[in-house]
Amino acid sequence: xxxxxxxxxxxxxxxxxxxxxxxxxxxxxxxxxxxxxxxxxxxxxxxxxxxxxxxxxxxxxxxxxxxxxxxxxxxxxxxxxxxxxxxxxxxxxxxxxxxxxxxxxxxxxxxxxxxxxxxxxxxxxxxxxxxxxxxxxxxxxxxxxxxxxxxxxxxxxxxxxxxxxxxxxxxxxxxxxxxxxxxxxxxxxxxxxxxxxxxxxxxxxxxxxxxxxxxxxxxxxxxxxxxxxxxxxxxxxxxxxxxxxxxxxxxxxxxx
Length: 256
Fold this sequence. Notes:
Layout: H1 5-8, E1 14-18, E2 24-27, E3 38-46, E4 59-61, E5 71-76, E6 83-91, E7 97-104, E8 110-118, E9 123-128, E10 131-137, H2 156-159, E11 162-164, E12 176-184, H3 190-198, E13 208-213, E14 219-220, E15 229-230, E16 240-243, E17 246-249
Antiparallel strand pairs: 1-12, 1-17, 2-11, 2-16, 3-8, 3-12, 4-11, 5-6, 6-7, 8-9, 9-10, 12-13, 14-15, 15-16
């Protein structure tokens, strides 16, 4: 039986707050070309989306709306601003974009655990709070973000970025908090993903490439450039630069 949010989602003492105006974080370079699999698992708190904001990305590879293979979240105006849209983009042989889209709602003003997983058998799936809600098989002639060579792209820097908090090409975003983020170069089993959800401070380490955990000890200016880094605990030095985003101490448990 899938775990309920109250059984599986922890109450976090700290989170990184993105204000919905101009805050974002970037891991760069972030090269995934050549990986055969990828899994992104995150604990995120979505505030009520602002009216008339059709696309408000909270985490994605790349930072452009249309032209680049990426995965991201967005608010979905089709559901009176209550929905959250999870999309996976590929590029067809003719250069056009193919979208694999699932809308999850009404997850707003609450912590949720979301997993996006792409396997070596080309299965793409989405899980919310340990329950699979979407599965699709990607045709072999469609290039995913893992297969699109960033060095041959028109704008290679876009392919080499993992962006949190917002799409910096846009001007209106949704206010969010991130407490924990894991990125794997493999497809952990569903039991491993459930373990991560129940024990977010002790995730499975095999294949772990990025681990960002919100805590005062892990947010500091390590290179003395005046910009805070969110320290990567995986050991791979995939630190996220924080631009405006701040550490929040959650004195009260957010409303569920």
